[in-house]
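Milestone M4 deliverable, item 7.
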Amino acid sequence: MNSENNVVLDLSLVFSVEVMDFCELLKKQGRNILSDQLFRSGTSIGANIQESQGAESRADFIHKLKIAYKEASETEYWLKLCEMSTHYPANMSLSVKVLSLKKLLSKIISTAKANKSGSSNEKNSQSNN
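Output delivered:
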């Protein structure tokens, strides 16, 4: 895929940098454990999306994006904890962005799955001819 037109990859990179900045704020406040968890899951989203660009097959592509989706869900959880706690700072911008990433990943995964089954049907109909 051409990274110049890859919206999900671009968004995940920007999101990762913003997560890194928020984690630094958390660390400065002595919130190291949550910061580490959020850092791992939040930056893993983009890493898995990047890895999907070199997938060996459509199934591998889908699998890597599913991992990115799971990491986004975990990131959403850590951000919700921050929002709900009176002792942690919240970052509503990251919460909105992770939801957008999840929606985009979900759409890409479902489209890739539909294309996969569509190409299987085409192969079956071609082999029957």
